[in-house]
Amino acid sequence: MKQLRISEQLFMELVKFHLLDMEENLPSIKQGLEAKLDALVMRDLYSKYKTAPTEEKREQARKEYLDRRGVSEKFRW
Q1: Rounded CA gap, 67 and 8, in Å?
Q2: Could you report the per-residue pLDDT of 22-76, keeping only the tens digit for each?
Q3: Following DSSP, what letter does each residue of 7-76 receive, concatenated?
Q4: Is residue 55 part of a domain?
Q5: Residue 54 contacts by C-beta under 8 Å, 6 or more apart in sequence?
Q6: Exposed e or buried b for every residue in 14-27, given b needs 16+ CB within 10 A?
Q7: How many independent structural domains does the chain possess?
Q8: Residue 10's pLDDT band (boundaries 50, 70, 90)?
Q9: In which domain, by residue range, is 55 found?
Q10: Distance between CA atoms of 6 and 59, rounded to whole angstroms?
Q11: Which candidate, 65, 20, 76, 8, places its Cα nearest to that of 41?
Q12: Is 58 exposed, middle or buried (0-12, 13-18, 19+ CB in 10 A)?
């Protein structure tokens, strides 16, 4: 099983939410977890791009990565 790293601040907010039932940090917890999930997806797409078995799959992963990154078609090679 892979391990993930999160910031100490996010960890403390999660602890307060789950153990102390403090719900005022819920929006920042949600934002932090969404940011982490986006980073994981981007890393996965980049890895697929670099390790794709065929040129077609590599190009598909590259396009998806650049689309999610928000890179304009004008700036792509």
Answers
A1: 31
A2: 999 999 999 999 999 999 999 998 898 889 899 998 988 888 888 888 878 777 6
A3: -HHHHHHHHHHHHS---TTHHHHHHHHHHHHHHHHHHHHHHHHHH-SSHHHHHHHHHHHHHHHT--GGG-
A4: yes
A5: none
A6: eeebeeeeeeebee
A7: 1
A8: very high
A9: 38-70
A10: 31
A11: 65
A12: middle
Q: Which two tokens stand for residue 32?
A: 């932090």
The answer to whether position 61 is within a domain reads yes
Tokens read off for 70 = 């928000």
Token representation of residue 68: 């999610």
- Token output for 45: 């797409």
The whole-model pTM stands at 0.74
Tokens at 39, concatenated: 């980073």
